Amino acid sequence: MEFYDTFWFTWVIIPFLIFIARVSDVTIGTLRIVFISKGYKILAPILGFFEVFIWLLAMGKIFQNLDNWMYYVAYSAGFAVGNYIGLIIEEKLALGFMNLRIITHEQGDALIKRLANEGFGITSSEAQGTRSRVNIIYCVIKRSDYKLVADIIQEYNPNAFYTLEDIRFANMGVFPVRSMMRGNGNFPWRKGK
């Protein structure tokens, strides 16, 4: 009996390899979609090549053994885990920019001053809310700076309401020097808007 015909190979090793392949291709696919949404026109197709190549390897093995239900379980589990890992990696990369809109019922001068002192560009205006006058503070930030900005808001105005929106492209903003030293959020091979 050859090793390829053993229980361990058929029911453990091959399903494990299918699982790993599926985790890999779905993780790459999740990152590819993120890079497409951020406008990385060269990196996304490169990732797409590896995503499909790995997928074909996994599917080829499944089609050779359509009667082995363990392959289907490994394939499905790999898909689920790959999505999760891809999102975790994307969160850690924190690519791109976010539009931060802060609405305060209190005067926002101290918060504005602190954000400006940290190097963030700020635009603010007074407005009428449902119940009272409010200050609206706009700030475009790098996603990697979100934690710092959230901590500042919590320190200076913990009751402030704020929202975040992803921005595909930002041009000519005011950003902290430390952010620019880490890079401008764009890979050198990103072209266009």
From TrEMBL:
Pfam families: DUF2179, DUF5698. Coiled coil: none annotated. InterPro entries: DUF2179 (IPR019264), DUF5698 (IPR044035), N-reg_PII/ATP_PRibTrfase_C (IPR015867), UPF0316 (IPR022930). It is a multi-pass membrane protein. Residues 120-168 form the DUF2179 domain. It is found in: Cell membrane. Residues 30-86 form the DUF5698 domain. Gene3D superfamilies: 3.30.70.120. Keywords: Cell membrane, Membrane, Transmembrane, Transmembrane helix. The keyword Transmembrane applies. It comes from the Bacteria. The chain crosses the membrane at residues 42-63, 69-89. GO terms for cellular component: plasma membrane. Belongs to the UPF0316 family. NCBIfam families: PRK04164.1-2 (NF003191). This is UPF0316 protein SAMN03080601_00947.
